[in-house]
């Protein structure tokens, strides 16, 4: 049976969209753009297949749908911008199959101007069709929060910016089948910039609280008590918490390569957040020293090496740099993570602890990097010889906190 929807790119942006579409009863086909680690569990993916979702390697099927959404991943480029290689490859593949009256939507994080610039040109030159006349073209910033059970695609508003008003309405009609609310932007550039603002908002606020963590430690102030009190303010404050670094699939954008300028706040945020793995290692070495031990030769156990709790995704996880820096100091590093059966650092496998409590009791220092639900933090704080909690997840007084 022909599908109504083709999701091009089955990574962290595409799989959640396909899952939401299948749940809404939309016949959906998925087309891979490359090796793409997704954020859905094997059980969730099996459920999608049972509901009729199909994965295809045949580009011809992209020409048999009413709506095609490009969700190819983007990554930081060497020039500080974003690498749009997979987005462009997806556009070329789709263009060769594109039929009149199809609605094409870009969900990948891209610099403002991409949809009505490079994407439009690739689609038009490859298809011989004209955007806004022969087919609809729009941008919809991806709003995915893996593992969040409160905010799902069904209750998260979708922002739509079309090339023309008709393009906007066509895309809005599609997303109206998936979500409760559709918000119409003035155009593609505005919709693309929504993603830019939302991503940088997160990074800037995490950077602020990360700097507060270092300041409070130096001044002997309990940051976590400060946050507990501050979050009672009912206006003008949103709670962000410090951590060992920022991971994930959306990164703060430097627009120099695309717009000839930078967002200074985003640039500073990236600098601050990028220093956190080094700061965690400094705190770890200081803790060991305070307890009469050297980092050289110390047994250090890392708990939770994914970028987010309760996920198997390692994209951008600060655990990688923390492990490297500890190894450079001469520490013997092992890890425990129920979602990661094997983990390589510097092209070498890191020993995986089978028993959490035994490993924590044996380690000179245990560092909690990610608070997976399966972790009994009260029990862990009792068993561990020395515990550094970078997430503020352990009971007050049970561990040394960031």
TrEMBL record:
Give residue ranges for domain UDP-glucose/GDP-mannose dehydrogenase C-terminal: 301-396
Instruction: Tell me the SUPFAM superfamilies matching this sequence.
Output: 6-phosphogluconate dehydrogenase C-terminal domain-like, NAD(P)-binding Rossmann-fold domains, UDP-glucose/GDP-mannose dehydrogenase C-terminal domain
Q: Which GO terms describe its biological process?
A: polysaccharide biosynthetic process
Pfam families documented for this protein: UDPG_MGDP_dh, UDPG_MGDP_dh_C, UDPG_MGDP_dh_N
> Listed GO molecular functions?
NAD binding; oxidoreductase activity, acting on the CH-CH group of donors, NAD or NADP as acceptor; oxidoreductase activity, acting on the CH-OH group of donors, NAD or NADP as acceptor
Alphabetic keyword roster: NAD, Oxidoreductase
Output the InterPro entries linked to this UniProt entry.
6-PGluconate_DH-like_C_sf (IPR008927), NAD(P)-bd_dom_sf (IPR036291), UDP-Glc/GDP-Man (IPR017476), UDP-Glc/GDP-Man_DH_C (IPR014027), UDP-Glc/GDP-Man_DH_C_sf (IPR036220), UDP-Glc/GDP-Man_DH_dimer (IPR014026), UDP-Glc/GDP-Man_DH_N (IPR001732), UDP_ManNAc/GlcNAc_DH (IPR028359)
What's the superkingdom here?
Answer: Bacteria
Q: Which family does it belong to?
A: Belongs to the UDP-glucose/GDP-mannose dehydrogenase family.
The protein depicted here goes by the name Nucleotide sugar dehydrogenase
Q: What is the lineage of its organism?
A: Bacteria, Bacillati, Actinomycetota, Actinomycetes, Catenulisporales
């Amino acid at each position: 049976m022909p599908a109504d929807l083709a999701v091009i790119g089955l990574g962290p942006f595409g799989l959640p969209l396909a899952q939401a579409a299948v749940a809404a009863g939309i016949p959906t086909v998925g087309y891979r753009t490359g090796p793409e680690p997704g954020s859905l569990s094997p059980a969730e993916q099996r459920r999608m297949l049972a509901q009729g979702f199909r994965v295809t390697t045949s580009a011809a099927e992209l020409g048999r749908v009413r709506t095609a959404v490009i969700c190819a991943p983007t990554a930081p480029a060497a020039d500080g911008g974003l690498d749009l290689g997979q987005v462009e490859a997806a556009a070329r593949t789709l263009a060769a199959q594109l039929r009149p009256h199809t609605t094409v939507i870009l969900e990948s994080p891209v610099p403002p101007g991409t949809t009505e610039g490079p994407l439009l040109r690739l689609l038009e030159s490859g298809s011989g069709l004209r955007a806004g006349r022969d087919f609809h073209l729009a941008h919809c910033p991806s709003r995915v929060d893996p593992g969040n059970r409160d905010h799902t695609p069904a209750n998260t508003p979708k922002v739509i910016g079309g090339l023309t008003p008709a393009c906007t309405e066509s895309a809005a009609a599609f997303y109206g089948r998936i979500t409760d609310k559709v918000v119409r932007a003035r155009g593609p550039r505005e919709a693309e910039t929504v993603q830019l603002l939302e991503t940088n908002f997160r990074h800037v606020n995490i950077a602020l609280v990360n700097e507060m963590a270092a300041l409070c430690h130096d001044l002997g102030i309990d940051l976590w008590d400060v946050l507990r009190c501050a979050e009672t303010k009912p206006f003008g404050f949103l709670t962000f918490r410090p951590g060992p670094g920022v991971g994930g699939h959306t990164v703060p954008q430097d627009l120099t390569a695309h717009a000839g300028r930078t967002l200074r706040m985003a640039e500073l945020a990236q600098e601050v957040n990028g220093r956190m793995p080094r700061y965690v290692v400094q705190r770890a070495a200081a803790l060991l020293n305070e307890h009469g031990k050297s980092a050289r030769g110390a047994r250090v156990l890392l708990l939770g090496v994914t970028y987010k709790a309760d996920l198997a995704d390692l994209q951008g996880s600060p655990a990688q740099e923390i492990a490297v820096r500890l190894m450079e100091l001469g520490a013997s590093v092992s890890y425990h993570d129920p979602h990661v059966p094997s983990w390589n650092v510097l092209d070498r496998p890191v020993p995986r602890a089978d028993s959490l409590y035994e490993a924590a009791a044996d380690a000179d220092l245990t560092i909690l990097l990610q608070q997976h639900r399966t972790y009994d933090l009260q029990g862990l704080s009792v068993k561990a010889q020395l515990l550094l909690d970078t997430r503020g997840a352990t009971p007050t007084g049970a561990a040394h906190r960031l």
